[in-house]
Structure formats: structure tokens, C-alpha cells
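Final paragraph of the annual report: two paired records, presented back to back.
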Amino acid sequence: MLVMLTSAGAATDLATANADGVSGIVCSTRVEGSTVRLLFDDDPQSVQVVLILGWLDHFPPAPEQYYVGKSLTVRGSVRKFREVSEIAVRDPADITVHGLPADAPQAADRESEIERLHDQVRSLQRRVQELEQHEPAP
């Protein structure tokens, strides 16, 4: 089942093959200790998406800013925690951002780009060490 949030925050059920989740436009976010909450509206009874900071290594930088105003579909199990319906997201692949240009980097692309940049930095560090070793003494 996929839960579609309307602009008024009311939830309507849409059948989708073996998937649970929510869709909507993120209107605001809240950083609470080790979590970032994505809010689709100001109604505290609406489903919220919870990103756990320990798992944000692969999310866009400053997710509390990145997702605001974007249309998302978030896959995951909706559970009640302290009287709030929420989906805890551990993997950015569970979040689909709609309306991004086709060339916008997705999570897997960002991971490979980060690894490529790490390799490039290591290569440059090795080259600097080589040059320093072969530098004539003053």
C-alpha cells in the first residue's frame, strides 16, 4: 500500500505492488537531536519521514535543507512512535525525488563520485610525497 498525502494532510490509500510508503511535498523539516524529520504539512497527525543522523552518510549534504519544497515518494513501513505515524529511512534509495533533471545525481552516483574523489586525493597525496622526497636540500 502507498499512502498519498494531499495538501490538506489527509491520507488516501492507493494500491501499489507490495510497497509501503508516503508521497508528498516536504513543506518543512525539524532537526531533533540525532534525527531529521521531513514534514509534509503542519498537521502533527500526518505521516512524517525520519532520517537518523547516524545513517546520513549517503544522503545529500544538509538534508534538512535539501528536501524542503521537493516532491518525494518515500518507501518504508509506516509505524506509530509516540503517537506520531512515521517512516524511519535508513537508505537514501528509499527516497525518490520527483521532478529532478535526468542528469541530477542520485545516491548511487554520489557514492561512486565520492569514491572517485577519494581516490584522486590519495593519488595527489602520493605524488606530493614523491616530489618532496626528490626535492634537493637547501
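The closing record of the year follows.
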Amino acid sequence: MTSAAEGREPQRNVACEPIDEKWGGLRRPNEAAAAGGGALFRRGGCTGECGRTAHRTAGKSCDQRAGRCEPRSEQALTGMTHSPVSPVGLSGNRLLASLPDANARLLAPHLGAVAFDRRYCFGKAHEPIEHVYFIELGLASINAGHGGGKQVETGLIGPEGMTGVPVVLRDDRSAFHTYAETAGRALRIEAAALREALDASPSLHTTLLRYANALMVQVAHTALANGRCTIEQRLARWLLMAADRVEGGTLTLTHELLALMLGVRRAGVTTALHELESRGLVRVQRGRVAVADRHGLEALAGGAYGPAEAVYRRLIG
């Protein structure tokens, strides 16, 4: 009998390259490999524990089918290093890049470069946060759910932010799941090391508290949009937010993923996408959505898009 471990595909290794200009001395996973050859949203194989061929063929992860986030420890990380980081130049993460040199030097020895697959779980609800990730490439989604297993996105994190915000707020766990909506890369620090750095530097703590505030404003506006806006307006807002965090403004995604993000039925997403395309606001191809008219999308989204972004610029820059 073949064991479950034998049935799973071998873990893919990602080559690392030296980076001279960004946090010098850091070795980062190859960008093209980490991003799946340029596709930021991927329908990769099963990321659950069963390794069933049917799940891989369907392009769905076990946790996606079940409607919940199931972490796999390091199994979904495609590469990482723990080389000491010299705080020279800028990080690909805007939050880290905003730090003064003294705070950058405080964090640098504890940061390791990681590449992650889509659906990698950065943190599971009500469980201790072990690591905090400063995203450099890709998207992370904060999801709220209930006992029935259904979830809806409440927050979106990209290269402007970090996971594990409760650590900054002096808590050791989150009430929500956080997982990767795209393959990507990040700088990772142990939660304990971050707590020590926050204790050592009040100014660092202040900066990260400012980000926590900006994220809470985003979450509040997501709730407002979900309660008061049409599906077309909510879709326009989400596409703008995702385009802000993805280079090139072209998203590789599925209607199923958009339905999960917006908390609506897949049929509703399909109809809304056709409406946006008919207005010339987006270009839709199989598995891809490109922003064609950003100003038009902003006009459609109205007040649902913009306020949270303005708060981030005011607090972080």
C-alpha cells in the first residue's frame, strides 16, 4: 500500500540569487520561479495533506474545497534563507523601506527571505502566531469565517504591509485566517524576535502601529462596501486594490477566487465582470483580468476605493 507521504509530489526547490542593493547580503529566491513564471495568481496543485490526484487535476487545494485555511508548516514554502541581512538600500516591502536606518539594523539580523506558494497559510485563526511576514511580491488575504466553513475576505495585504498585526498589538494570535492568494516572496521574522525589537525601539513600534491603524481602516471600508455597494462596485474596488499591489496591473485569477474574496456567488462575479468589460473598464481573458480604464474603475467604485489608501499614505508615506 502506498503511503500518503509517498503519494505526494516532491517539494519543489527554488534557486536563490544574491541581491546587492536591497537589504544587502540577503539572498532571495529567484523571482521568476517564486512567481510561477510571471503568473501571480496560480492554480497550482493540491496544498492539502491528502495528495489526491483529483484535487491536483481540478486545480484546487483541499483547504479551498473545504472553505477553510489549513496550514502545512514549511511544506508550501518554496525556498528560504536565514543569512544575516545588512540594512543597505531598500526592501521590496514599503513598510520596511520606510524605516530609519537604526530600526532597519535592529530587524535585519532576524529576517529571512522566503518564497511561498498560493494558498500557503501565514496564520490560522485562534492559534499562536509563530512568524510575521513582510510581503515583497504577491498578495495575502485575511479571511473571516463562521462555524459553517464559509469565509469572506476582510483584508488584503501586499508589498505595502505585513501579516501578524496582532503581534504589534501585543496579542499572540489572530481571530482570522491569513493565507496567500498568489505565489510570491516575503521577508520573515519570528514573532518572538519582533516582540523584542518592539520593546527595544518605541519608534519601530509606532511605525508598525500606524500600519495596524491603516489596515483597520481598510477592513472597515471593506465591511462598508460589502453592506452598501453593488457587486460591480465591490469588484471594481477589489480589482483596484489588487492592481495597486501587483506589478503591471494584470491579475491571473479565477471567478471562484473572486467570489470568495467578495463573498458572493460565482455567477454574480461572472455577470459583474461582463458588465465591467462591456464598459471598457477591464479586459478579460481566460484566467486573466487586466485593468483597462483605471479612472473608470475608480469612478464606478466611488467612495468605496480611496479613503483607506489615503490613510496609508498619510501614516506610512
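The longest strand covers residues 131-137. This concludes the annual technical report; the extension proposal builds directly on these records.
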